[in-house]
Amino acid sequence: MYRKQDLKYLQDIFDRSSNDIAVLYGKSTSGLSEILRDFSKDKEFLYYRASAVQDKIQRQLFAGEIHEQTRSPIFPEDDYDKLITTYINENADRKKLIIFGDFYWLIKANPTFINFLSHLLFHQTRSGSVMILLVCDDIRWVENDMIRLIGRKSSEISGVIKMHAYSATEFVECFPKIPLSEAMGIYSIIGGKSKYYSEITDESTAHSVAVRELERFADDSFEPGDFLPKDIREPAVYNTILLNIAAGHAKLNELHNATGIDRAKLSVYLKTLIESGTVKKAVSADVGDGASVMKGAYLIAEREEYFYYKLVYPHLSSLRIIGAERFYRRFIDQELIPFIEEFYPHFCMEHVCWLRDHDRLNFRVSSIEEYYDKAKAIGFVVVAAGGSVIACATRYAGPHMSYQTYEDVKAAVRRNKINCDNIWLFSASGFDQKLAMFGNVTPGVRLIDGAEQRLR
Known about the structure:
Elements: H1 4-14, E1 20-26, H2 32-40, E2 44-49, H3 55-70, H4 80-89, E3 96-101, H5 104-109, H6 113-123, E4 130-136, H7 139-150, E5 157-163, H8 168-174, H9 180-190, H10 206-218, H11 235-246, H12 252-259, H13 263-275, E6 279-281, E7 298-300, H14 303-312, H15 316-322, H16 324-357, E8 365-370, E9 380-384, E10 389-395, H17 403-415, E11 420-427, H18 433-441, E12 445-449
Parallel strand pairs: 1-4, 1-5, 2-3, 3-4, 10-11, 11-12
Antiparallel strand pairs: 6-7, 8-9, 9-10
Helix pairs in contact: 3-4, 9-10, 9-14, 9-16, 10-16, 11-14, 15-16
C-alpha cells in the first residue's frame, strides 16, 4: 500500500515533454515495490538492480541486463553507450522508463555515473524520450551522502519523492470496519509499514497480528540485525543501545550508565540511528514556570522495531523453541494492553495535528509535545501560538474515563504552574456519566471519544 499522491507525482514527471531524472526513496516497508509495480505498468521500461561490485563489473552487468531485456542485436561488449541510446531512441513515439534499484551502489562505486546519465539524457537522446528513476531504501545515504557525492549534478534531478510511513490516523482510515481499539492495537505493533497492510482484513485483531509478527521473527530468514541501518559496523553495540532504549533508558546519561559506552561514542552511535530513521529524539516546549516536557530523550521511531526490542528480543531463544502462539501467551498477552496504552497518546497527538492541518481549530498551534510529570496525569500538551497551553490526558483501555481524571489533570496543572487555559480528555473507552455531563457544560473542557477520532 502507498499514497496515491506519490504515484501521481511520478506520473506527472513521466508525462513531461522533457527527459528527466527522479529519485524515489524510503524504507522498503513503505510500499516501494508496490508503487514501482504500478508505475511501470503499461510502460516500456528497463529495470536494473545495482549491487556491491566494482564500477567496471557494474556496467557489464547493466549492459547484460539491457541486452537480455530488450533482445538487442547490439552486444554489450561491442558498444555500451550505443546499446542504451539505441533502446531509448527506437520506437520514438513511446517514452521509455529506466529504473535503477539500489542505485546507491552505482554512485558509491562511481560518483560520475550521474554525469553519464545526464549526458545521455540531454545530449544523446531526443527530448521527451526517457525518464530515469533512481530508487533507494537507504534513507540515511540519500539524505546525508548523495548530494555530497554527485555535487552540482544534483540540480539536474527533476524530482525527489520520499515514501513516508503511514501515520496512525491514516491507518485507522484505511480500515474503517476494524474497531478503533483493535486498529490501535494493530498499529502499535506494525506501525506505518504499509508493506504489511495487505495481510490485514476487517477481522484482524491485535492478537492475530502479533502472532503473525512473531512467526516472522521466528523464521530462519529473519536476523536480529535486519532492523539496523545498512552498512553499519558493530551491530552488537547498536542492538545493545536499542534494547536499552526499549527498556526505558531514554536519556544519554541513562544509556551511558546502562551500557557502559563512552558518552562521546554513544552520541555518534545515536546520530547514526537518528539519520537512518531508527531512533528519534524528543524535543521540548515552553509550557510555563516549573513545568517539564520530555527533553533529550531517545525513542525507537518505528513501532515494529519497538515491539521487537521491548517484548521479543529479550526472549528470542524461547521464540524459536516454543513457537509463536505459545510465546504470545507466555510473554506478550499480559504486556500487550500496557504496550498499546503507551502508544495511545501519540495517536491522540496525531489527531490534534490532523485538526490543525485541516483548519478545524480556532487557534494557531505552536507545538504538540509529550509531557512528563511524576503523577503521569498529563499525557501531552498543545501549545498555542500565544503561549497558552492545553493539557491533555488519555485513556485507551479499561472502564470509562472518570471525572477524577479531570481533577487529576487540574491538580497537575496547578502543581507544575502551567499556563493552561483548557483541558482536553481523550478516551477510546468513553466517559462516565458525571464527566460527560460536566464536559458538556464547562467552558475550556473538551471530551474526545474514539468515534470522534476517526477522521471525517
